[in-house]
Amino acid sequence: MTAPVEGLDEALAAVDAFDRALVAGLLRPQPARVADLTELAHAVAGSPLAARVAEAAGKAAAGAAGEDHLVALAAARTALLGAAHDALTARADESTGRTRGEAAAPAPVPSQTVNLLLAARTWLADLARAGWQGIDHELVGSAAQIVSAMLPDPALRRLATLLDGFAAELAASCPGAALDRFPARRWGDLWARALLLTRPGAAEPPPAAPATGRLLPLGVDLHEHATAAQAQVHAVFEPADGGPARLVRASVSAPKPDTVVAAGVWQLLRPHLALLTALGEGRSMQLTDMPLTEDGDLIWDDDRARAGEPADAFATARVALPAATAPPTAPLDRHPARLAEPVFLEGYATRQDGDSTIAFGFAGHSLAVDTDRIPAAGPLTPAAVAASSACIGLLRWDDGAFRLQPLAVETTVRRKTTALQAGAWAGGTTDKTGAKAEKAATDAVTVLRERAGRLLRK
User: Fold this and answer.
1) Is the pLDDT of residue 430 over 80?
2) Side-chain half-sphere of 383: how many Cα atoms within 13 Å?
3) Are 377 and 425 contacting, i.e. CB atoms less than 8 angstroms apart?
């Protein structure tokens, strides 16, 4: 895991080169930006994209790129990051000894033209021509009508949500000419993904097949933002027909006011996913015909699940996790930031530099621990991680190296081995700190509902 991955630096350098061109804009590229476009084209010269990208880079260098040319450049950028993802995933699988399922060939999607997709593509093309340095409120605000028209259509909602969030980030940074620094990789990711989703059929949901069997939760990854929260449960699924165990995920999202933080977030998520209660209680779940996509996502339906027998996450990690098959990654999700592989470690030595930097040492190497990803909505803390003897976590790749995001640890409390889960409060808690945070969140939500009711009555 510590050895260099061949070709990775070159692939990311080509992506960075194109992102520099997006910062300056493609309307009248300067010589340095023309060289950046050429670097992107050279990086995919040995791929089926070579001819189209070479033509698109030439047109963009002349300031004459059309929307189809920009789609080709976005595809090249996405392909490079996908190749980086695949190389890093292969390295992670080699290190953990994990086997991975093969992706089936995608079903043909009937070609169609959707006016709203064309409108979104035109807006994204205008952004690329202006560049992040050239954005202003008029340009960014023109996405609002497109988003409003898309949201009522479920088939377009995925793209609409992406455009809405992207436009909000850009609007908060307008005018671009006043910025000293740009989140070039992030905005490049959002721009390229949105542009590819304007292709008819690109946003089609993956096919799902009914799954029946036992679900053994490992831990929960909580994503929290000012106006939204998502809990993603990682688990091992054991099919009832005796088939091989699989790594799966189940997610729930909910909007939230920015005053609801820490343990209060569970109040918003808990009613929508019974799995969170089972996780908090340390139980398995029995699934009956639950839709499961090829890339490992359960389309959760509480009516198709019931609580099962007690299931210790660390017993699952020691016994079931090593034999579980990992799912393939959907084509548009192939990105280094998407890497999140459940792993189990024990017998390591802990090294701590200062107050926050923690690393696990084993086999003569060390693995950095990303304690910044530990949510405040649970009893797991950096101190508990530093004192742990075993850890369930997600193996990620960030800032040029593999890192571990802890989901649960075993540590010694009063001479007794104790398990601490980041999602231990998901189903409710009697812990004093957690109960206090939940009460504060309940009060905040009650006040907000009362105010909203008054406004509606007025």
Assistant:
1) no
2) 2
3) yes
10 Å CB burial of residue 291 (0-12, 13-18, 19+) is middle
Single-letter amino acid code for the residue at 227? T
Q: Is the pLDDT of residue 393 over 70?
A: yes
Bond before 239 cis per omega within 30 degrees: no
Q: Do residues 362 and 348 make contact, with C-beta atoms less than 8 angstroms apart? A: yes
Question: How far is Cα 299 from Cα 438, in angstroms, rounded to an integer?
Answer: 28
Spatial contact of 207 and 126, defined as CB atoms under 8 Å apart? no
- Give the pLDDT mean for 179-196: 96
Give the alpha-carbon dihedral of 92, 94, 96, 102, to 10 degrees. 80
Residue from 287, 321, 330, 318 nearest 101 by CA: 330
Distance CA 297, CA 233 (A): 10
Q: For residue 69, what are its two tokens?
A: 């040319």
- 356 secondary structure, DSSP code: T
Backbone angles phi, psi at 16, to 5 degrees: -60, -35
| pLDDT tens readout for residues 129-162 | 999 999 999 999 999 999 999 988 888 888 998 9
Average predicted confidence (pLDDT) for the chain: 90
Pairing type for strands 305-310 and 341-346 reads unpaired
- Structure confidence at residue 205 (pLDDT): 78
Give residue-wise pLDDT tens across range 210-268: 999 999 999 999 988 777 889 999 999 999 999 999 999 999 888 877 777 777 788 88
Runs of H (alpha helix) within 381-431: 382-386
Nearest of 78, 210, 96, 186 to residue 132 by alpha carbon? 186
Quick one: how far is CA 182 from the chain centroid?
A: 21
DSSP 13-65: HHHHHHHHHHHH-SSS--HHHHHHHHHHHHHTTTSTTHHHHHHHHHHHHTT--
Q: Cα(26)–Cα(64) distance, rounded to whole angstroms?
A: 8
Element (H, E) at 287: strand 283-293
Residue type, 86: D
